[in-house]
Hints:
By secondary structure, the protein is an alpha+beta fold.
Amino acid sequence: MASYPIATKASSAVLAQAASLNSADSKFQIFYFGLQARAEIPRLMLAYAGANVEHVSADWPAMKEKTRFGCLPVMFETTSNGTVLEFAESVAIERYIAKKFNLMGENVWEEQLMNEFVSSIDFQLTNYVKVMFAPIESRHKEAETFHQNFAKWVVFIERHLAENGNNGHFIGNKISWADLKLSVLVGRLSLLLPSGMEVPKLPEGLVKVVEKVKADPKVAAWLASEEYQKYDANTKGFFKF
C-alpha cells in the first residue's frame, strides 16, 4: 500500500506555479475506500484525461488525522518539478481536474454554465444518497420519491441539452465535466436499484450524453477494467443492493 504523501510546504505563488505545469507530466494519487461513491467522478475524469494516476485504498482510520478535513477522498498531484500538491473535498477535486484538463468550457461564460450544470447534477446525486442509506424495508419508497423529483428535473436538463443542439454534450461539442458527472448519476441509478424497481426510462438528450461518454476509448477502457468492476461490486455489497 502506498504511503500517505507529504504535501510541499511553500508560498501560494510557488504552489500556484507548480499547479500550472503541464498536466501530462504530473502523477496523481487518489486515496479512497474500495468503493465508487465520492471518488467515482474524480477517477472517471482522470481516466478520460488519460492522466498518470494511482488509485490507493485508504488505510482508514490510521490516516484520518493526516487528511485536511478528516474525510476522503484526498488527491495528490506530484508535478514535473517535484512539488506535491494536496487536494481535499470531492467537488473541489473535480473542479481542479476539470480546469487542469480543459473540461470547464472555452471561456468564462461557459465556465459559469458548467458550474451551474454540475451543481444541479450534484444535487441529484446527493438526493440519491437518501435511497442508498435508507433501511432496506423503506428503500423502495425513498426511491419512488427520488424518481418523481428526478423526472421533473430531467425536463429542465433536456431543455438545456436541446439548446446546445442535442449533440450529446452540455456545452460545445466535446466531453466536459458535466457530461462525465451526468453519466455517473445515470450509472448510479442502475447500479444501486432497489429490488423490484425498473431503471427509469431516460429521454433522448440524456441518453446521448451517456452514450458519448461511454464511447470514448479511455472511458471505455476504465469502465471495463478489473479495478472499476471491483469498485462496482464492493459498492453494491456495501450498500446491500
